[in-house]
Amino acid sequence: NGGVSAELNFEYADKIQWPNHLSPTTIGTLAEHPFDYLMERLLVITNDGKAQMADAKTTKGNVAHAIIEALFAPRDDARYSKPEEIAERIQNEYEEAYTKVLEAKGAVLQLTENKLSEKLLHEQLRGCLDTLLKVTGCEHYVESQMNLGLPKALDKEGNVKERDMLGFIDMTLEDKDGHPVVFDFKWTTWAKGYQNKLIENRSVQLEF
């Protein structure tokens, strides 16, 4: 192997703080990029400078998620948001919400080399919100929380234990029969990327 060690040995490995649970997204990162997971999540070896900012692709997804939450989520302790309420928010609040989220979560998109990409995100996301609203308009409402009846986590002896994996639902709807519909948002420039993963059963998240 050209004299390169096949193993990485660390002193004081007992000091590593192992996570007590993983999300489906984190498990996907671990499976596809194990070295990055080790360095960033376990050893906490990162660099927060501009050169090491989250890539633009990931940041776009974070911005899109946050804007959808800002405009679609129930307000004032309401149990759900009605489609007509969401439509009014999109019409009146999109620009302000976009600016606030971009400042809070989109630092890398404000770099000179990413300004064109950021402008495209602004336009494309607005169109996506209209499309998403058409979907929600076909359902009863967007709920803030739903009891999805997750099974209990059990150990080998059948005793209840803490969950090894925790995740977050992006959005839930209820269909006309009262059944929950769970959404997981993805921002991608390749329309069939995630579709192909589902068809070929290569989605790590859906394994759980």
Task: Give a quick rundown of the structure.
The protein is of the alpha+beta class.
How would you describe this protein?
The structure is a single chain. By secondary structure, the protein is α+β, with helices and mostly antiparallel strands. Helix content is 42%, strand content 6%. It contains 6 helices and 4 strands, in the order αααβααβββα. It has helices at 24-32, 34-42, 56-72, 83-105, 115-137, 193-199; strands spanning 80-81, 141-143, 171-174, 180-183. A hairpin with a 5-residue loop joins strand 3 and strand 4. Helix 3 packs antiparallel against helix 4. The longest helix is centred in the middle third of the chain and has 23 residues, at 83-105. The two termini are 36 Å apart. The model is unreliable at 48-53 (pLDDT under 50).
